[in-house]
């Protein structure tokens, strides 16, 4: 701990709540800039909505949600239409205040006209969401799953999932919501922080009983009942990857603002807590993502009335210690050095590269007076190795798992440590999911035209340059129309009061403008094809422009 600041640079910085130190120029920080903001209930719902607009089937693991107060009329209207078309539909909705946690301020309603809703939302923005009425029950109780996910890198995207998680149980037997039981939090909300106050709460000293259990113990039970646990895991992995794909565009905007490319800065990683609810049919549904999941491995016990003591919680310890330990193993700078050394020998299949590689290593180790020259050569070589190694990486057989698994543990300082509990899922399964990364490419365009480093919003000149460089304006779409589009969309997004610190067009507004342009240009296609086509069009024009500029430079 550095309560009064630090003087020496560190390899790993472990921040308590969020990324907050702009004076870090090297090493790795355990938080991404802007993560807290990105996973807030409203921002997450917006990001998921954008993906649901593009890929409705792929993103049906997130309950239908509306943002209040701005979408109250839409919420009322859509529910009315759905009820009219299906009179047997008797929905329940859950209202969650933005920025709330631990079940704070959450309540259930049966109808948009509920007085509680109309009364409270003006003072506190919230998300209202379709309530999942038929959750999977164990011992007649509702429970949710907390899974730990390591976002190891944003660019390139690297995601790991912990092989075990926690299951947090309600403390009253579950009944489908009725007007009579809507307010019974111990029946409907699985939050540990709420249920701990129930007299039915059971602190267990084993991982498969009590009000908090390991997820693996639930899987064992499901498996013994004949459930397809493999499919369930694969659905969960897919949910996690898709959710992170929805979050990365916003994260990249924050990242370039706090840690501009080309300047010295740290790299970031972060442990996220995914809250997932299993439906009766075993479909996993995302409830929320926590940027700062609790890593406590103790709980309070009342020894005698009013006297509390912290005692170890074996279930928390089982899951959380492994997550922290393996996160440190994966980001260990010594490991990176060892891995790099391993890669130098492993990857260059081409014999010429191998020969140059060996030469360069020996040279840079032995010939210290040629350090500068050797550094230049090794940088060049790394570039070649990168080009040479990429295709061969794809051919690493499935069974060898992650690169780290491939390094024999007993040779390094990890001898005696258990095998990694964090399993790499991306880029491992990248091929299946890369087609979903359209908004990521839109964000790359946005960042490119932001201009001055350190900003997160696009000014009118930046937007005009984007239109001009991508050749999007023509006789049907004048530069005056471009300005009107910019003003209309920017004004609306800024009036929602998300971020008043900077003026200009935020990423979500740019995404909306981009979708608008795509719809205009490629009328008859489905939205995701419209957006993909416009992206290709823009990227093509920008590549041509870059080539032309390079030509001028050389000339
Ligand atoms: P918080 O950050 O306050 O914990 P959550 O979104 O996690 O907010 O919701 C709290 C609890 O409410 C969840 O743990 C879950 O038990 C329940 N819950 C949340 N959303 C839904 C939903 N759409 N359907 C059913 N239960 C839900």
UniProtKB/TrEMBL annotation:
<dbReference type="GO" id="GO:0005524">
    <property type="term" value="F:ATP binding"/>
</dbReference>
<keyword id="KW-0547">Nucleotide-binding</keyword>
<dbReference type="GO" id="GO:0000226">
    <property type="term" value="P:microtubule cytoskeleton organization"/>
</dbReference>
<dbReference type="GO" id="GO:0036064">
    <property type="term" value="C:ciliary basal body"/>
</dbReference>
<keyword id="KW-0067">ATP-binding</keyword>
<protein>
    <submittedName>
        <fullName>TTL11 polyglutamylase</fullName>
    </submittedName>
</protein>
<dbReference type="GO" id="GO:0070740">
    <property type="term" value="F:tubulin-glutamic acid ligase activity"/>
</dbReference>
<dbReference type="InterPro" id="IPR004344">
    <property type="entry name" value="TTL/TTLL_fam"/>
</dbReference>
<keyword id="KW-0436">Ligase</keyword>
<dbReference type="GO" id="GO:0015631">
    <property type="term" value="F:tubulin binding"/>
</dbReference>
<dbReference type="Pfam" id="PF03133">
    <property type="entry name" value="TTL"/>
</dbReference>
